[in-house]
């Protein structure tokens, strides 16, 4: 089995843009972007990318009609409304799609009891993954692949998620800093996605774990100091107290920043994919990226 037609739902976001570029650059696929009817964005404009229109409310009938003829559907839009993602899985199966890739990606694993306990986001991701499993069990023509990549390393510097402040040269280190965690650049997520689609059978109905590297926070800090030529200020954070405080705030009132603070901790302390049965770097033909090189790219990009 080989995949030809790949449809990306959410092609203009931070990850979606990189996924789109990676799929097009691979040269293996006819790439389509699904746009909501009211959207004014033009992802892939001027390239060979095709476009289809899906209903704003993402109703099942409209999605099913729009997705007919596609071999693969990739969800790369935020998991704000889990029902939209659940309908997208169902519509893909009804439309005859062969492979579905849910919006799993980063920073944590939806299989983690701690992530599900603390955040609705990962309970929702788990629901979507179970929906994929349920439909695949009943419909052998349908399959899924979930890609889990840890923190988006390069983007995590831009939005502050990783707690490395390039402007002020400060770094927040959790506890003694001894824990290593897998993280991925956005391009690595695209590379992993393309590699998985090029290997339909060994990636069928599996959760795959990928990374750019697996390093501790002090190792990342040391790379930053080498690249910037400056000694940074290191601040130590008690992860248990930090999580308890953030959880109290989130329980009192939902706030995206507070939610991301919890994600920051979980993605730094519970994301060593090298220990997972589904660690797929060798399977996908991927090798770790060079930490110093990636950090240099990040620093140069933030300096623009």
TrEMBL record:
Pfam families on file: NmrA (PF05368)
GO function term, MF aspect, one: oxidoreductase activity
InterPro entries documented for this protein: NAD(P)-bd_dom_sf, NmrA-like, NmrA/Isoflavone_reductase-like, PCBER-like
Domain NmrA-like: 5-266
Signal peptide location: none
Keyword Oxidoreductase listed: yes
TM segment ranges: none
Alphabetical list of PANTHER family matching this protein: NMRA-LIKE DOMAIN-CONTAINING PROTEIN-RELATED, NMRA-LIKE FAMILY PROTEIN
The protein's name: NmrA-like domain-containing protein
């Amino acid at each position: 089995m080989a995949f030809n037609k790949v449809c990306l739902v959410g092609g203009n976001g931070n990850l979606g843009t990189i996924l789109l570029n990676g799929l097009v650059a691979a040269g293996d696929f006819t790439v389509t972007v699904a746009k909501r009817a009211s959207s004014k964005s033009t992802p892939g404009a001027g390239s060979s990318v095709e476009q289809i229109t899906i209903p704003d409310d993402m109703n099942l009938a409209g999605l099913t009609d729009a997705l007919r003829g596609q071999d693969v559907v990739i969800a790369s839009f935020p998991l704000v409304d889990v029902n939209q993602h659940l309908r997208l899985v169902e519509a893909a199966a009804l439309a005859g799609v062969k492979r579905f890739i849910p919006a799993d990606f980063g920073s944590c694993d939806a299989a983690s009891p701690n992530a599900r306990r603390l955040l609705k986001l990962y309970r929702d991701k788990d629901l979507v993954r179970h929906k994929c499993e349920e439909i695949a069990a009943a419909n052998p023509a349908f399959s899924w692949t979930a890609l889990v990549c840890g923190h988006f390393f390069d983007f995590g510097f831009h939005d502050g998620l990783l707690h490395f402040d390039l402007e002020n040269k400060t770094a927040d280190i959790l506890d003694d800093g001894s824990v290593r965690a897998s993280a991925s650049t956005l391009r690595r997520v695209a590379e992993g996605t393309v590699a998985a689609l090029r290997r339909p059978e060994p990636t069928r109905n599996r959760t795959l774990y990928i990374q750019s590297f697996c390093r501790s926070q002090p190792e990342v800090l040391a790379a930053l100091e080498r690249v910037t030529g400056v000694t940074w200020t290191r601040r130590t954070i008690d992860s248990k107290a930090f999580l308890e405080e953030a959880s109290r705030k989130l329980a009192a009132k939902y706030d995206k920043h507070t939610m991301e603070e919890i994600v920051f901790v979980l993605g730094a302390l519970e994301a060593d994919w090298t220990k997972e049965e589904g660690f797929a770097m060798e399977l996908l033909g991927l090798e770790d990226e060079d930490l110093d090189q990636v950090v240099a790219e990040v620093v140069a990009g933030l300096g623009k």
